[in-house]
From TrEMBL:
Protein EC: 4.99.1.9
Catalyzed reactions: Fe-coproporphyrin III + 2 H(+) = coproporphyrin III + Fe(2+)
Species of the source: Arthrobacter silviterrae
Function per UniProt: Involved in coproporphyrin-dependent heme b biosynthesis. Catalyzes the insertion of ferrous iron into coproporphyrin III to form Fe-coproporphyrin III.
Name of the protein described by the UniProt record: Coproporphyrin III ferrochelatase
Gene, per the UniProt record: cpfC
């Protein structure tokens, strides 16, 4: 049996993407995101407009503040006193600043990160570990040696999966009300996630089920749970493609697919933002604004499911995953629950390995996950 504590970690860190707060932040934010990534200027101008359309303010920071509060409440409920911090990759509060302040104030140096990405890929896993390595380097140079660990990717953790199931159930019920009953010939369930380059997809498959495969595993589980009474076909579609036009990314784009579906006789869709844990700009713009307009232009009914946000089951699951990682780090046998067939520590699971999700260039990353390594 695993001890219920987070030792030896001094703090949990909610690690996220970050987003701008006002119009003047948008350009420097986008420069932080895209430094060295070869995204065409036209795309940056276009994405800038998405943010300006919302007064330059991304919803992501408020979402993370709510999640931070929920995590603190959940720890308190379990009698755990470990502090929970919040730090970002691309905008204030930056991870390095948050970690530096914590070290200066408390002397604590061991951090366990909870990141806001459920699936495996360079962008959603390894890049966070590169961020930790960078923070580690900066602080080491300032005479503050720190360490970072992170929880596993949690796409198949029961906490996240159950929360997602609730979101889909509520959306299906609301949609059935809205259209006066489900009709499998006319209605479709669309799971949406962030598109990534095909090369990033391929890298994600080296040791885990891969970015797309992990979404598909969760979709199969959701379908089985939704079960009786729901005879709607479902499929995975993508949003938020960037990159140059000649570089292949995961498809189909949700807007293109809506047009095809309409031509196939589908006139209503339930859109589940499976790849997003809260209402980010991609959800508010790419789904609620752009895809909703596409659907309206085609005369289709459109309902967007909630994201898991601060669903109690999701929050409790994140804390469970942190406890699991801490126990594993201490060398205790861990219970590693997963809703999909592979256990969470087996290949196809959400555990990172040294070789997983490599980016284009070798960069230092921390930690190097040591469970079941080395991958194929
Ligand atoms: C897999 C994935 C997630 C999900 C996992 C996770 O959550 O981490 C995610 C999340 C997010 N992506 C976000 C914003 C942006 N992503 C960009 C660019 C890119 N994303 C990529 C992938 C992902 N991105 C990729 C392969 C690129 C190409 C450049 C590169 O290789 O890095 C760009 C540049 C402009 C553009 O091209 O769109 C922006 C502005 C925000 C904040 C939103 C807000 O403000 O609410 C969030 C949560
Ligand atoms: Fe992104």
């Amino acid at each position: 049996m695993t001890d219920v504590n987070l030792e030896p970690f001094d703090a949990l860190v909610l690690m996220s993407f970050g987003g701008p707060e006002k119009n003047a932040d948008v350009l420097p934010f986008l420069q932080n995101v895209t430094r060295g990534r070869g995204i065409p200027d036209e795309r940056l101008v276009e994405v800038g407009e998405h943010y300006y359309g919302f007064g330059g303010k991304s919803p992501i920071n408020e979402q993370n503040q709510k999640l931070l509060e929920s995590l603190r409440r959940e720890l308190a409920r379990r009698g755990l006193e470990t502090p929970v911090l919040w730090g970002n990759r691309n905008w204030a509060p930056f991870l390095t600043d948050v970690a530096r302040d914590f070290v200066a104030e408390t002397g604590g140096t061991k951090f366990l990160a909870i990141d806001t990405s459920a699936y495996s890929s360079y962008s959603s896993c390894r890049q966070y570990r590169e961020d930790f390595a960078q923070t580690l380097d900066v602080l080491a140079a300032e005479g503050m040696p720190v360490t970072f660990e992170k929880i596993r990717q949690y796409y198949n953790h029961p906490g996240f999966a159950d929360a997602e199931l609730g979101c889909v159930r509520r959306a299906v019920d609301a949609f059935a009300q809205q259209v006066g009953g489900l009709d499998s010939r006319r209605h479709r369930l669309l799971y949406v996630t962030h598109s990534i380059p095909q090369s990033m997809q391929a890298a994600s498959e080296r040791w885990t089920a891969g970015y797309r495969g992990q979404h598909e595993q969760l979709m199969s589980w959701l379908e089985a749970k939704l079960g009786l009474g729901l005879h709607l076909d479902s499929e995975l579609v993508f949003c938020s493609r960037s990159g140059a036009p000649h570089v292949p990314w995961l498809e189909p784009d949700i807007n293109d697919r809506l047009e095809e579906l309409k031509a196939e006789g589908i006139d209503g869709v339930i859109v589940v933002p499976l790849g997003f844990v809260s209402d980010h700009m991609e959800v508010k713009y790419d789904l609620d604004t752009e895809a909703a307009q596409t659907a309206a232009g085609l005369g289709m009914d459109f309902l967007r499911a909630e994201s898991v946000g601060t669903d109690p089951s999701f929050v409790a699951g994140l804390v469970d995953a942190a406890l699991e990682r801490a126990a594993q780090y201490r060398g205790e046998p861990v219970d590693s629950p997963a809703v999909t067939e592979e256990g969470a520590l087996a290949p196809g699971s959400g555990a990172c390995s040294v070789s997983c999700c490599l980016g284009r260039l070798p960069k230092p990353e921390a930690p190097s996950w040591a469970v079941g390594d080395e991958g194929p």
